[in-house]
Specification:
The structure is a single chain. The chain has 7 helices and 2 strands, in the order αααααααββ. It is mainly α. The protein has a domain of 136 residues.
């Protein structure tokens, strides 16, 4: 009986320490995992902050490959209608000239296939009946040139909106002095001649124009 009491006295602190360790482990293990989430969240927030509030010219250039995204990245939303209006206008002329080119190209091919000695080969195309072979060829070439020019202008417009996004990103953080002032004033200085009878006096040349002054 005495031996059992001694064992019980020594084992009670051991069980209590083991239970305390289990509690500490149970309390600290989830906390170590949970502490990782604020760090990851902060890193993600910093990435989003740098992406949306920072104005890296490289990012603006890459986004500019999709028309309008570069302007949105630079927060120049008022440029979006201009960008898409340019594509709409050039696209309209490109499509309309392409349609006219196809019509005259088909009529020209049909006209060339005619054989004066074979009535069955006479082309019933309205344009072929209205224009001569030379007229059909000239109109075909005219609309083809306009179509190609429209596509070239569209490509130039595409490059310009990328350059606009890049330049805006470079100048976004550029500070302008509040004291900067530009004034434009007309200048009118008539020709001054010497007084009547005084030929020895000096004369000043007249100056007319516009004066531009920059203060900073």
């Amino acid at each position: 009986m005495t031996l059992l009491l001694v064992l019980a006295c020594f084992s009670a602190p051991l069980f209590a320490q083991q239970a305390e360790d289990e509690v500490v482990v149970a309390d600290t293990a989830p906390l170590s995992r949970m502490s990782m989430f604020p760090q990851k969240t902060a890193a993600i927030n910093q990435s989003f902050e740098r992406f949306f509030n920072g104005h890296d010219p490289k990012i603006a250039t890459y986004l500019g490959f999709v028309p309008g995204l570069g302007q949105v990245y630079n927060k120049k939303y008022w440029k979006l209608p201009i960008v898409y209006a340019g594509f709409a206008v050039t696209g309209y002329f490109a499509i309309s000239n392409r349609n006219e080119y196809r019509l005259f190209a088909n009529a020209y091919s049909c006209k060339l296939a005619e054989d004066p000695d074979d009535p069955s080969t006479i082309c019933d195309n309205p344009l072929a009946q209205k224009y001569t072979v030379d007229g059909l060829r000239e109109n075909r070439d005219y609309y083809r040139r306009n179509m190609e020019l429209s596509y070239i202008i569209m490509g130039v417009w595409y490059i310009l909106q990328i350059l606009d996004a890049t330049v805006d990103a470079h100048l976004y953080d550029w500070e302008v002095n509040e004291d900067l002032k530009v004034s434009v004033q007309p200048v009118f200085r008539p020709l001054l001649r010497p007084a009547f009878g005084n030929t020895a006096g000096p004369s000043s040349a007249g100056i007319n124009g516009i004066s531009v002054s920059l203060k900073f």
